[in-house]
Amino acid sequence: MQDVSPNSLEVLRGTNQSGMRDHNERLVLSLVRRHGALAKSDIARMTGLSAQTVSVIMRGLEQDGLLERGQPVRGKVGQPSVPMSLAAEGAFFLGLKVGRRSADLVLTDFRGRLRAARRKVYRYPTPDTVVGFVREAAPALARELPVALRSRVMGMGVAMPFQLWNWVSIIGAPQSEMDAWRTRDLAAELGAATGLPVYVQNDATSACGAELIFGTGERPKDFLYFYFGTFIGGGLVMNGQLFLGRTGNAAAVGSIQVPAPGGGTRRLIDLASMSVLAEAMEAAGEGSDHLWSQHDRWEVSERVLSAWLNQAAGALAHATLAAAALLEIEAVLIDGWMPLGVRAELVRRTRGALLGLDLAGIEPPLIREGTVGADARALGAAAIPLSQRYLIDQNAAVREG
To answer: Is 357's pLDDT higher than 90?
Structure first.
């Protein structure tokens, strides 16, 4: 493991007033994040808190640099209202995505905007490689902030596949090296290296969390989420909340059995993953290494891509039908490490494949594109410490209307 002197990590250490908030402060911050700029009267109406209480809370959050004032809005009578929005520089968060082929470390601000990023590509992930990467990259990212803001880096989230040691045969890694994941405490090691609280979550679940917290446009209250990486993964949102399950592995969509070409059934992961596309490309004499290093442009023949899209869309449609029968979800969102045009076509074909199935007794969910994009896993990782420190159950003590 790389030896790094303590001084190189000092940019990540320190505290300020932007730490853990109390219940009502979290409630206000959650509402502003969800709805955008809000005036004190809006917050009071939504929460049932008194105008005086809301005024004290919002004044304190403004003093701590977490909220900022907008332009006054004048009505027909009374004093003008002043909308308050999240202050981008109120807090910063690190998000680490540990993938089968690469690791990404990002720095986001309080609004979820990407401020800086570093990437490491490898043949397969090992704990030493990942920890060494963070030891080098995390201080470099923090140094891109003005000195006065560096102490506002408030935590790190880690998005990674669970049980990495089980993927040895698929990613071609030595069992002895991958077995190290069984005993290493990554959160503890990264916490010691950076001086930050560290939270670990399944990678596809984290991508779903990014859609829930940072996504744009109308967000359904109940949706199933598919993310295309080396392997397909998923997440589930119920009643506006990320549903993790008993072990944090809920919505492990890759294990869903779906009809296979030629008969029988296979797991969704075996039919709809990017690794399946890579294998088809290699079989056709087309190099696939670029799939893992960049996402905005795929160099793949139309024949190979179209066949993969049809197969993936058909498998997604069957998985969607099974989920809709059990959960009565409102929508399915599809995102991944892929060009936007490919994502749009995949959604279109999945929508058509679903409508071609027997939907008797089922209200088919809407099939939509995700809005976060290729960096959803890393951004979702950064959203974990943000949620832990500043947000609250979106359904708690909120009056709609």
So the answer is: yes
230 & 359 share domain: yes
Specify burial of residue 78 (Cβ count, 10 A radius: 0-12, 13-18, 19+). Answer: exposed
SS3 198: strand
Q: Is residue 399 part of a domain?
A: no
Q: Is position 158 within any domain? A: yes
Bin 136: left if φ > 0, else alpha if -120 < ψ < 50, else beta: alpha
Phi, psi for 336 (deg, rounded to 5): 165, 180
150 and 10 share one domain:
yes
Given a contact cutoff of 8 angstroms between Cβ atoms, the answer to whether 56 and 41 are in contact is no
Residue with tokens 């808190």: 49
pLDDT in tens, 145-199: 999 999 999 999 999 998 888 877 777 788 888 899 999 999 999 999 999 999 9
Q: Are 295 and 340 in contact (CB under 8 A)?
A: no
Q: CA 214, 218, 222: angle at the middle one, nearest 5?
A: 85
